[in-house]
Automatic annotation (TrEMBL):
Family of the protein in this entry: Belongs to the FMO family.
EC number from the UniProt entry: 1.-.-.-
Source organism (scientific name): Aegilops tauschii subsp. strangulata
Functional description taken from the UniProt entry: Catalyzes the conversion of methylthioalkyl glucosinolates of any chain length into methylsulfinylalkyl glucosinolates.
GO molecular function: flavin adenine dinucleotide binding; N,N-dimethylaniline monooxygenase activity; NADP binding
Keywords, alphabetical: FAD, Flavoprotein, Monooxygenase, NADP, Oxidoreductase
InterPro entries: FAD/NAD-bd_sf, Flavin_mOase, Flavin_mOase-like, FMO-like
Protein's name in the database: Flavin-containing monooxygenase
SUPFAM superfamilies hit by this protein: FAD/NAD(P)-binding domain (SSF51905)
Enzymatic class: oxidoreductase
Known cofactor(s): FAD
């Protein structure tokens, strides 16, 4: 059994906000958000300042009367991207500390004692792992409020049930779908006998060492499956160790890191920047050339098939020039 159901469908809701059950106005998770139009003219509180929180807050700034962006933890992020957002949308957008309580009269109270009247609260607070169809007799559990699945060797194989049970897609903060393809290829190679797993004891020891190393580095347990966000090179090392795919080219690695850095600096304009290095420009140019060549070959092959199948009345590849 290969569990590849993803982890972006079961919303993670805050457990430290009082009054959520008594709040009679709008509440939803970002998973249910589609367009800003239903919130036109409203005062909206967005909980969470990560990617989804910033994206939705910016989307709402176009139609909402007020947008209040609240931190989902004790720290209020003062990043360059956040500063630019506030500078560009200060007439609508406000930044707050985390929410302490939702009041029945519609007030949202923050940790610093301030409050605002709101029509809707949108929780951009991530997702929890959930496998309601899976019963392993306790061999695989979900712990730490839904943040950790384990034990999993390299986030894929539970040592006591490997290789008959594996997980593809548990890892967070990785290149998608590239990293999941690496995992899938590894699982396929193990199941087909082309690769072997370490002994159960060795896999379990590896899992424990990973957890101890993260703890020693001060990384919270909730980030157990966060790979590139903590140790970017681990993502590439995984591919080199367990996959037969060619290593990712250096210009692609550089493009990933520069894009992330640009996004952290300005979430609204990072896609429009044209200050890539020479190696990235050459890499993209070469990639576009290969893609165009592959597309042309595909079109010629399709015309050939049509010509052969019809026998007459079709344009063949030899006449396209």
């Amino acid at each position: 059994v290969v569990v590849a159901t993803g982890h972006y469908s079961q919303p993670m809701l805050p457990s430290d906000i009082e009054g959520m059950g008594e709040w009679t106005r709008g509440q939803l998770h970002s998973h249910s958000y589609r367009t800003p139009e239903p919130f036109r003219g409203e005062a909206v509180v967005v909980v969470g300042c990560a990617e989804s929180g910033k994206d939705i807050a910016l989307d709402l700034c176009r139609v909402a009367r007020e947008v209040h962006l609240a931190a989902s933890s004790k720290a209020t992020p003062a990043t360059p991207a956040m500063s630019r957002m506030l500078a560009n949308h200060g007439d609508v957008l406000r930044l707050h500390t985390r929410i302490r309580r939702l009041h029945a009269d519609g007030r949202v109270e923050f940790a610093d004692g301030s409050s605002v009247a709101a029509d809707t609260v949108i929780y951009c607070t991530g997702y929890t792992y959930s496998f309601p169809f899976l019963d392993t007799g306790g061999a695989v559990t979900i712990e730490d409020d839904g943040y950790v699945v384990g034990p999993l060797f390299e986030h894929v194989f539970p040592p006591s049930l490997a290789p008959s049970l594996s997980f593809v897609g548990v890892a967070r903060k990785v290149l998608i779908p590239w990293f999941f393809e690496l995992q899938a290829r590894w699982v396929a190679q193990v199941l087909s006998g082309r690769r072997a797993l370490p002994a159960e004891e060795e896999m379990l020891r590896s899992v424990e060492e990973h957890l101890r190393a993260r703890e020693a580095a001060g990384v919270p347990r909730k980030h157990t499956h966060n790979i590139a966000g903590i140790e970017p090179e681990k993502m590439y090392e995984f591919g080199e160790r367990y996959s037969d795919l060619a290593p990712l080219e250096e210009w692609k690695k550089e493009l990933v890191m520069s894009s992330i850095a640009s996004m952290m600096a300005d979430v609204e304009t990072f896609r429009d920047r044209a200050d890539d290095s020479e190696s990235v420009r050459k890499g993209v140019q070469g990639w576009r050339g290969l893609a165009a060549h592959a597309q042309a070959k595909s079109m010629i092959a399709a015309v050939d098939v049509e010509g052969d199948g019809a026998g007459h009345g079709r344009v063949s590849s030899s006449s396209t020039d």
